[in-house]
Predict the structure.
Amino acid sequence: MPVGPPPVGPVPVGPVPPGLARRATADPLFRLVAYALEAAHGRPPAAVWSAPYAFHLDSPGRVAAAGWPVAAAAAPRTDGLVRLSSLGHPADSCDLPLVPDGPPPAAPAWAVRPYALLRALARAGYGRGGTDLHVQGSLTEAAGLATAEPAECAMALAVADVHTPAGAEPDREGLARLLARALPEGDDALRGAVLFARPGRALLTEAAGEELRHVAFDPVASGSRLVLLAVRGDPSERAAELSRAVALARRAGALSAWPPVRRPGRSALVLLPASRSAAVRAAVAEDFRGRGRPVPRFLNIAVAGAARREE
């Protein structure tokens, strides 16, 4: 009995999985950036990367990554145009010509550093035809963690990934050097944590010229908790209020406290015994509430791994 010619092309073996933007099981942040790029620029991303916020430890020369991510979605172009968007700056999306050298075009304040990064990537051979790019963090600057370094690492990895052969990882060491050259005002130590961190480990940043070295830093495994304490209210009073909050935390049982970034600002990382977590939070909250001040925010911090591809 004749059966006819075989089918042309691949034979379907099951339902095609939905893109990240419509995948119900995906992390909401990653679904959001994928959908936002598609909504803003009319096509799905070719890559989505997440990058952790990073922080300095109280021991000099040590950094680690936090279990809160920034996400970046990228899609390549061929017309020499850069289109940048972020839900953090909904009124300041921009379309800019990609000019690898010479004076850059005018851009919204938030997009100046991303555009400088895209120019440097283009000079290195990544994205010379242009890029659609959307970036979004899970935390705001009010948390007191550095926001630029994880965002820039996520963007660099996403763009480089789009122009890296399938199955190959972007060159993280090369991207770290590129970021240092393109954006020298950034914190290279924090970028190192974003790119090379390991869960439950701290990265040593002072071993210049040597292989990456990690040491144990896992508060949960030792029966402790790491908490980010961020004060609110009048900016002129933040330093004094933060000092007061840290002193209250210490009196209530905290083991140590230190600024998460090089320039002390509105937050501190507090290491405390797990058994004193509720007492520390209560002591700080009661004092601030009793003085009619905004109660500081507390955010649990897990020591996380490095940036990774999500889609």
User: Anything to note?
Assistant: The two ends are 46 Å apart (CA to CA). The helical segments are 28-41, 112-123, 148-162, 172-182, 188-196, 238-251, 277-290. The first strand starts at residue 47 and ends at 56.
